[in-house]
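Problem: given the chain below (244 residues), write out its structure.
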Amino acid sequence: MDELPAEVALMWRLRETPRRGPKPTLALDDIVRAAIEIADEDKDLAAVSMARVAERVGNSTMALYRHVKSKDELLVLMSDAALERPEPLPADVDWRTGLTIWAGAVLTAVRKHRWYAKLPISGPPAGPNNLAWFDSALGALSGTGLPEEAKVGIVMGLMTYVQGEIRMGLDLAAGFADNPDIFRQYGATLARVIDPRQLPALARVLDAGVFDDVGNFEQNSDQDFDFGLQLYLDGVAAFIERVS
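Solution.
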């Protein structure tokens, strides 16, 4: 039997810990919890270091290395622990409502940890919490009659959309916080350089005043998220109808 990938064994607490030396006084969950607290307080993943985490848990940096070999391993653990298990979807909702609820819940969960979108993505979900979210979304499609392969494709596509919107949205939110006038300025800048003969579609966007007044950024961001989500689900609905 093949060995479990190192990251998977780590997240599932299946990696053997060193047995030599004194009995550890520090638990892996304490280390991960401290790292998440630091990242939340600073709203920055770069704030997390082995030294700061060691200080937070009242132990030496070397003591951390008995549990976590590197900061990269710590980030892997944070990526799973920060997403608490999802609430069960209502039993009486259709697949579309279920996936809409699911996507909104992911957005809410990640917004609790503004640094989460900066975590590197090296593969599909593999930790216990992330797999619970994966299972929840797949479960929403259980009544569609779709083959399992199609369900996975739909959920992976939805994950790509949600993660992309979250990452871009958090970056834009940071820019808007620094300069609330950034989008109006962007429109004014484009108006000075765009030739309608060269970029006619974009010129029509500017003429429509799309960038003139963004209003409440977070509210508009939520509306944009839902608009894109429903477009994606429209495609899923068409696919289900075609193959059923």
